[in-house]
């Protein structure tokens, strides 16, 4: 008998970025893992918990940072963002690909095309807030799983 169940996962290129629904009814950008079917919300060891890229999360491939920059015409924004991060000595953020693409995503959605310091600072703040929210969500999920295991009735 042939399996008629639909495949509920997508396969994406490892190292690419994907935008998908988060568990709080919003959207998030994640980094695709080597297996192509999971992604992480953080590149920080200890916070990089892989999550399955399920079709119900409506994943959209964004590609690499260079592809995203090219697609959205963000060359100047990318250069200005990195320059600001270096000037502010935000080296961890400048070397975090998820932080960079989230900031660029914010800049791509900015109504004004002017790349003032305030606009770039807002993108940096937005990226930091997104990462903080995802870190807090991860902790809640882990606490829930631990609690569920401890309260299981055998």
Quick recap:
The chain is an alpha+beta fold. It has helices at 65-72, 75-87, 91-94, 97-108, 117-150, and strands at 17-21, 27-32, 38-40, 51-52, 60-63.
Descriptive report:
There is one protein chain. The protein is α+β, with helices and mostly antiparallel strands and about 150 residues long. Helices cover about 45% and strands about 15% of the residues. A 5-stranded antiparallel beta sheet has the order 4-3-2-1-5. A hairpin with a 5-residue loop joins β1 (about 15-20) and β2. α1 packs parallel to α4 (about 95-110), α2 crosses α5 (about 115-150) and α4 (about 95-110) crosses α5. The protein is globular. The mean pLDDT is about 85.
> Strand order within the widest sheet?
4-3-2-1-5
As a percent range, the share of helical residues equals 40-55%
Structural class: alpha+beta
Q: Note the main sheet.
A: 5 strands, antiparallel
- State mean pLDDT (0 to 100 scale): 87
What would the principal axes of the Cα set say about the shape? globular
Q: Quote the beta fraction.
A: 5-15%
Q: List the quaternary state of the chains.
A: single chain
Element-by-element helix/strand order: EEEEEHHHHH
| Radius of gyration using CA atoms only | 18 Å
Number of strands: 5
Distance between the termini: 35 Å
Q: Low-confidence runs (pLDDT<50, min 5 residues)?
A: none
Task: Write a concise keyword list for the protein shown above.
5-stranded antiparallel beta sheet; 46% helix
List the helices and strands and how they pair.
Layout: E1 17-21, E2 27-32, E3 38-40, E4 51-52, E5 60-63, H1 65-72, H2 75-87, H3 91-94, H4 97-108, H5 117-150
Antiparallel strand pairs: 1-2, 1-5, 2-3, 3-4
Helix pairs in contact: 1-4, 2-4, 2-5, 4-5
């Amino acid at each position: 008998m042939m399996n008629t169940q639909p495949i509920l996962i997508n396969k994406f290129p490892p190292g690419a970025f994907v935008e998908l629904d988060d568990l709080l009814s919003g959207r998030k950008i994640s980094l695709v893992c080597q297996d192509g079917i999971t992604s992480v919300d953080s590149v920080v060891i200890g916070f990089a918990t892989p999550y399955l890229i399920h079709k119900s999360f409506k994943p959209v491939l964004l590609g690499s940072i260079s592809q995203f920059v090219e697609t959205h015409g963000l060359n100047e924004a990318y250069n200005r963002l990195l320059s600001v991060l270096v000037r502010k000595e935000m080296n961890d953020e400048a070397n975090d690909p998820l932080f960079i693409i989230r900031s660029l995503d914010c800049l791509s959605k900015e109504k004004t095309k002017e790349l003032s310091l305030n606009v770039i600072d807002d993108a940096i703040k937005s990226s930091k807030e997104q990462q903080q929210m995802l870190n807090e969500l991860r902790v809640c999920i882990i606490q829930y799983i631990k609690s569920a295991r401890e309260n299981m009735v055998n």
